[in-house]
Here is the input.
Amino acid sequence: MTSLHLLLWIVGAILLQLSIYLAIGFWRHWQNYDALRTTVIEGGLPVKFNNESVEPEPAAAAWTGWRAFKVTHKVLENATHDICSFHLAPQDGQALPAFMPGQYLTFRLDIPLAEGGTESVTRCYSLSDGPRPNGYRVSIKRAPAPLNTVHPPGRSSNFFHDQVALGSVLQVRAPAGHFYIDHSDAPVVLLGGGIGITPMLSMVNWCFAEKPEREVWLFYGARFEQELMAQAHLEALADMHPNFHLHFCFSDTNKDAALSSPYQRHGRVDIDLLRRLLPLKPYHFYLCGPTPMLESLVPALEDWGVPDARIHFEAFGPASVKRKSASGKTTTPSPEQDADTSVRVTFAKSGKQVSWQPGSGNLLSFAEAHGIAVDSGCRAGSCGSCQTSIRHGEVSYREAPDFDPDAGTCLMCVCTPKTPLTLEL
Here is the structure.
């Protein structure tokens, strides 16, 4: 064997060893990637697996009225078993319109009565996943009876948990709502309290499917770890994306107790925490949670200097959140600001004519106080159940409702009379 042959054998052996080493390294990398990808998919994020150029399909149009959806999956989401996700597919098999992350679905439920028969109830629930062409997801927390009161448990949430099963068919309106994340690249701070995490999950999933480089901060407030939903999914996203800053905040845990994750911390989501952690940047803030959380954080963000146009929030049901006007004076939105004197309201079919006074509240409460039955659901301007025809006169809204009423109608739960008013009821 010549020296040249020996050299070629040595070079060949080295190349073979190097190829084997690279192949093993690639296989291990693929296994880790595939495991993380599976975790993310199971958590509900629509991951884009390739960047091939494909011709986009025309977007499906939003439907009008009610549409039948079948429950394809029912998943308990937390250790306390009081949050359940319902995956919905259209019974007609047709494509679904995309929605804006943060919007909600409206359901018409036929809830059984103890004395027999059913009662039709309308409720709204936030979508809790990014847009998909073939299905939606809502995540609903069971509402127990309030402590030390005579009020019953939440009717619609308990109906979902106890009586809606795989294969159940539900009547659903198209996605709606004015609370949703913008589609820019601006940095965002998402603040979710309790079940207010659901629209935030939709926003987070959309961001990392469509704008993975966007800077996102998520502060998720709960009483303790067992209440959290989607914890593993959110932590997997935080591990994948260094621009995703995740913080679980526990209000009812012992401050000396050990935390199980580097993403966890003791204490509430408050302005002091935000000021300590957030760099000075032009963030948009999105908040969803119970009214006390919003009543605390919204004015505090304004006092911190966040412009009104960069603060977006949604509460659980009707909420009165103090905001600052352009002059810097603090105001509390309320129907009473729309009139200083009494206004005559006529209910045509009921034959009643009564005087609305400042302090009488919205028209729904006013009608009920005078014995006039009105169909209602959310009582927050979202579901459209109380939409009523106006025969004469005008109404006033302190803020635009989420549900867009038809021309010549009003949403009684969020408006007050602006002029002498005649309603169809």
Remarks:
- The helical segments are 3-43, 155-163, 197-210, 231-240, 271-277, 291-303, 363-369.
